[in-house]
User: Which sequence fits this backbone?
């Protein structure tokens, strides 16, 4: 019976410890998730601006833009 009580006490101590750690980790994960969402919004905005600038340059200088796009699409043999 004594070993059962010690086992129960040990489990109670572990459960209390685990619940405290879990609460701390949940807060950290929530903060990281929020940070990632904000970073994604920022990146989406940056890429939207890049697309708008590309469209503006393509409209203003279509020949040069097409040339640059063609150059960028060529495979790069320097890495072999």
Assistant:
């Amino acid at each position: 019976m004594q070993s059962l009580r010690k086992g129960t006490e040990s489990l109670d101590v572990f459960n209390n410890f685990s619940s405290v750690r879990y609460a701390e980790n949940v807060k950290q994960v929530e903060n990281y998730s929020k940070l990632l969402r904000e970073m994604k919004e920022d990146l989406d905005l940056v890429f939207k601006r890049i697309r708008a600038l590309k469209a503006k340059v393509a409209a203003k200088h279509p020949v040069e833009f097409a040339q640059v796009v063609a150059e960028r699409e060529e495979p790069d043999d320097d890495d072999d």
User: Anything to note?
Assistant: Residues 58 and 65 are 5 Å apart (CA to CA). DSSP finds two helices and no strands in the chain. The helical segments are 2-60, 62-73. The mean pLDDT is 92.
